[in-house]
Amino acid sequence: MKIVPVCKSHTIQIAGNSHKFGTPEEVAAKVVTAEVNRDGVFEVTLVNDPVAVEEDGVLSYILNYLSVGKRGDKRFVAKFCIQNQRLYALTGQIAEADYKSKEKEIFKAVESFRVLS
Q1: pTM of the predicted model, to two decimals?
Q2: According to the model, what pLDDT value does residue 68 have?
Q3: Are 11 and 5 contacting, i.e. CB atoms less than 8 angstroms apart?
């Protein structure tokens, strides 16, 4: 896993793992369940419906969700790409209070994520 600092208030995380996949809603449910089960997280809410896109024959899902916990309210924008039976994820995280001012920047970074073979 690689964590790339984008600026003081948010980071981008990249990971690759084997996984079974489902519909955008099933993937979103798995992500939300994993997040809400983390220590100190009180509530997780999908901000928008999950989106499936296909780019150059690669299926990707984009999720936008809010995590509320003892460490503050954090917005996550994630893109999951499925290639060669592997799941690759890039997750942008930012304090909810800073989200509106950095929304375009974080979406540009997340949407640019591609898995190269």
Answers
A1: 0.79
A2: 96
A3: yes
